[in-house]
Amino acid sequence: MTKETFEHALAELEEVVAKLEDESVGLEEALKLFERGVRLAK
Questions:
Q1: Cβ atoms 20, 37 nearer than 8 A
Q2: What is the structure's pLDDT at 12?
Q3: Where are the domains of the chain?
Q4: What is the pLDDT of residue 7?
């Protein structure tokens, strides 16, 4: 993975975490965000 790709994935993962911390996110959306976060973390 290139540095640019890693930095992009990290930035997107940070966005996912911020959205998950928002209590107004519904369960279905939270699960989708969680799955996306897991894929980004790999």
A1: yes
A2: 96
A3: 3-41
A4: 92
Q: Quick check: 33 and 25 in contact, CB under 8 A?
A: yes
Residue 19 contacts residue 25 (beta carbons within 8 Å): yes
Task: Give the Cα separation of 29 and 19 in Å (integer).
Answer: 9
Contact partners, residue 40, CB within 8 Å, separation at least 6? 9, 10, 12, 13, 16
**No. of helices (H) and no. of strands (E), the chain:** 2, 0
pLDDT digits (tens, 9 = 90+) for 1-42: 687 899 999 999 999 999 999 999 999 999 999 999 999 888
CB 30 within 8 A of CB 20: yes
Which tokens in the block code for residue 26?
Answer: 């519904």
